[in-house]
Amino acid sequence: NLFNMKSKFAILALLILGCVAVNAKIATTTVTTASFASAPQVVIDTSEDTKWAKARGDNLFFAPGADSSIITAWMMNWNFSQNTSISILKRDIDTVTMKAKGDDVTIKTDIVSKIAPFVKPGMGNICFPTVRDDGKNTADQLHLNMMLANATENDVPLDAKITEAKIGMGFMVVDALWQKDTWYVIWSEFNQTAQTELGLWLQGVKAKDGSLVWDKSIKIVELSNPMGGSQAIAGLNSDTDATEIIVAWKEINPESEYQEGTTKQSTITIADGKVSDAVTLRSDTDSAFYYPSSVLTSSGSSGPILTRESYTENSQTPTYMIAAFLNGKTDPKILEFTAPDNYFAPMVRTFDLATGFVGIAQYSGEQDGIFVYRTFDTTGAPLQAQKKISTSMSNMQFWQDKVGSVWAAYSDFDDKTGLVTKSWVGKLIA
Q1: DSSP state of 284
Q2: Buried b (16+ CB within 10 A) or exposed e, 128-149
């Protein structure tokens, strides 16, 4: 059962990161229109929009625009053979008509990275972490590139170098968190030869000029985990005026056969960069395993969310619970979600609401995933029945605009080439 458990979470990771489809020429998403405040509409059709013909599930992103009347679509054209970006393509979309607003903008770039960058949307801007060296026989360094949503073809991404690593070190970005005018980047450093995670780090970058928040990057915790073992998550303690960054991770027991470990949490004070002592949330047992899912950030409550997978002595079929450790408590509140039949391993993301927060859960199946959502008050008590968003063979993107509306985007794509055929955007919660 442990092997099956690990396999299921691997499938889920693929669904989150991009394109998973089996025995289908076009990987599709079927939405429950009644669950949306405004039904999704086509915003990109690559058969007509030839500029977007190279769009894939892993290079096409949607984000809040420069103001709440605009959504911006971004595409990173990446040359994999040379590990460099060719251009960034963006389109402003009117949130009322859902039509393109103005002309598409192509921004020529020559960003070099040893990993293809993922784009993280912020409010009116985007960032994308990159890894590159400074020349022959120099160490790899982590950079953060940023671009405003109102960028023109004459603009170039802002670049900030955020590490001073030694040769042989590598990086896995945990998350990039946007607050007011700053990106906070959390990453895991690892030994490239030993393939061992060595610790978690934090740095902030000011979007206006690329300057660093702290003179030196902040070491959150020292680790000795196998690669990917920390499964770290991060988030802010408030959606409006954060004072702390919350980070949770797993410390793997070196004697364990299946990477069992203990999940811990620390907070970092933004004002002075002070890291709190680590607090133990939960430890894995022979029958129950905990997986960091996300950090809840809302105006009324915050804290890590873990997925609990458990087995009984008489059953090989796992059951799941979603546990939220709210406002510094180590006794969790169970968020009440109902798993669809034959779907498993829920991962949850949240958004702030005036009444509390909304949780969006993604469940994995053998060939697709199911997305559902439910609203909760600040204590984690449900406010309404669970609603199904979609059944999807690919991924869905979710974001919140300046007035608090939650949006969703998804794409159909050819499962042989990975190229997008059409993309839709709809307002999930007004």
Answers
A1: -
A2: bbbbbeeeeeeebbbbbbbbbb
Cα–Cα distances in angstroms (integers) from residue 358 to residues 84, 242, 280, in the given order: 38, 19, 26
The two three-digit tokens of residue 63, written as one number: 């984000």
- Asked whether the beta carbons of 121 and 101 are under 8 A apart, the reply is no
Q: Is 13 strand, coil or helix? A: helix
Residue with tokens 């599709």: 28
Dist CA 116 CA 190 (whole Å): 18
Question: Cα torsion at 25, 27, 33, 39 (round to 10°)?
Answer: -100
Nearest to residue 337, comparing CAs of 291, 368, 296, 373? 373
In which residue are the tokens 């005026």 written? Answer: 241
Say whether pTM exceeds 0.85: yes
- Give yes or no for a contact between 21 and 11, defined as CB atoms under 8 angstroms apart: no
* Residue of 133, 119, 106 whose CA lies nearest to 17: 119
Here the tokens at position 412 are: 């159909």
Cα separation, 201 vs 192, whole angstroms: 17
183-221: burial string, b at 16+ Cβ within 10 Å, e else: bbbbbbbbeeeeeebbbbbbbbbbbeebeebeeebbebb
Rounded Cα distance between 402 and 230, Å, is 33
Read off the DSSP letter of residue 54: T
Q: For residues 302 and 296, is the Cβ–Cβ distance under 8 A? A: yes
Q: Which of 368, 352, 358 is nearest to 31 (CA)?
A: 368
Q: What is the pLDDT of residues 327-365, one digit of tens each?
A: 999 999 999 999 999 999 999 999 999 999 999 999 999
Q: Which residues pair with 100 in a beta bridge?
A: 93
Give the Cα-Cα-Cα angle 181, 83, 194 (nearest 5 degrees).
Answer: 90
Q: Which of 126, 127, 129, 131 is nearest to 112 (CA)?
A: 131
The whole-angstrom separation of Cα 246 and Cα 366 is 33
- Please report where in the chains the tokens 């949503």 appear, as a residue: 149
158-179: per-residue pLDDT in tens?
999 999 999 988 888 999 999 8
The pair of three-digit structure tokens given for residue 14, joined into one six-digit string: 């693929």
* Structure tokens belonging to residue 162: 């955020």
Tokens of 239: 């959606």
Strand partners, 359: 350, 374
Report how far residue 43's alpha carbon sits from residue 412's, in angstroms, rounded to the nearest whole number: 12
- For residues 125 and 207, is the Cβ–Cβ distance under 8 A? yes
What are the phi and psi torsion angles at 244 (to 5°)? Answer: -140, 155
